[in-house]
User: Fold these one by one.
Assistant:
Number 1:
Amino acid sequence: MADMTDGEEREGMDMGGGRGMDADVLRLRPHHLLCIPRYVGEGYGEDFNRAMARARDFMEAGGMVELVRGEDDICCSCPHAPPHTPGGRYGSGSAEICSTGWVSRLDDLVLRLLALEYGLVERGDVLLSRSRARVPTVKEVCVGCPWLELCLQVEKGWAEG
Ligand code: SF4
């Protein structure tokens, strides 16, 4: 996939912390391409939830996204205390599951499933459509995630229209 900017003016994204207030490109780790379409307001805390909602709105509006390794512009709002990713960009904490390598392996798997690569810059709405089309369910993909049951409930809602 190429960078498909179409010349439209787009608002910068206020992440409310982390790396400044007006990023033009949202830095996103790949597995969040599965989480964002299934996000219904539940998360690791208020700041994290706000970051998820902002990322979703920004992407749905066609904001540009860069796929990155490790902590991204959502992780920086995670309230969990150390251990955090060694050398992490923000020095913020990570949920326990994020310090085990499980999340990084999930990131790599999602890239393969979506046929994408780290470093890609693409419109958020294009990436979300691709995610929904290529991974209609996370049932077999996200085994081990504490939010899996909730995400499967969201998918059930999709199926029921
Ligand atoms: S199960 Fe976990 S990793 Fe998978 S989409 Fe849901 S929140 Fe994201």
Number 2:
Amino acid sequence: MNQKNEKKLNGTVIVTYRCNARCNMCNRYKAPSRPEEEISLETIRKLPPMYFTNITGGEPFIREDLKEIVRELKKKSDRIVISTNGFFTDRIVDLCKEFPDIGIRISIEGLEATNNAIRGLEDGYNRGYTTLQKLVAMGMKDVGFGMTVQDCNCKDLVPLYKISDEMGMEFATASLHNSFYFVEAKNIIHDRPMVAQEFENLINELLSSNSPKKWFRAYFNHGLINYIYSQKRLLPCDMSFDTFFIDPYGDVMPCNGTKEKEVMGNLNRQSWEELWNSKEAETVRAKVRHCDRNCWMIGSVSPAMHKYIWVPALWVIRHKFLRFFKKKKYSMYENKIVRDYRDGKVTKEALDRCSTCDLHAIVNDGLSQRSREQLADKTGEEIVDADIAEQMKKA
Ligand code: SF4
């Protein structure tokens, strides 16, 4: 391995594009991958050493061989976190029995009624919540909620945080994004001040805790206010330099936030060294340097927060100081753009134009030709429902 590849990377493995949820902010369930085309153990064995790996989908637990995948990834990654909708409780519990040190993040989009309306999963809230409780009862340390904040669930943000806090769990937040990965281009926050107000409340909850990790989470949520006002990222984006995503077809990409799928190479066909040092990878890196999508998702922000640690650290010190000595809480109006919007110096239309929302975009779903062919006479939902029904018969 050459010098360039000696350091460990941050990787996300999209093990499948099949999903059984019907979220209002993601159309991936309409565009599933074919199981026989999904990333194999052979390809996973070719991945480089990683300090962190996120396993995601689609819904990763739809894959019946997820245990074997985790077993392989454990050999090359210091830490693994799986993002899931929590529906397959038994599979999750079973996997965690073998790997008690992995992390599990279950997407819960609000309190019961809100979550079930957004996710479209029958009894989704109770299933997710029960799964989390079971994992905590098993003694799993790294479990938590993941919530994508939008207009219709923002009021549940702090109540959900409090539930997770009482259960001693992690609480990860995101907001709406558009990309080929989400098969979506129309996501946008409509009432920015309302949503920002809820983030402000959460930030103050986090800053008032005794946990340095939560103080840094507060900074991340401060960045989400900046993001929903369509502003430039607070930190540079270095995706594809020391971070990568790999999709179910073995295509290695910088991230999941691009409009079109950007491919650095294919790990089914190439070795990691060949792919990572290729001309195509350099071309993608040049695009990342000029990318103006300004995403603020944990996958691209967490590595940046580690790399440019002094930026969030100074923000945390300042806000803890203000809180402790001046009794001053965080205010969303610290952000110039939030003040400008309140004062009528910038319009909603102007902010909407700066966002990635594009009502006329034709969305590229990133599917292979073969996966797309199966959609000719069936919908993605029908394909995945039949697939799961078949799996359940076998079980
Ligand atoms: S800002 Fe970064 S994470 Fe977002 S699309 Fe651009 S390169 Fe990807």
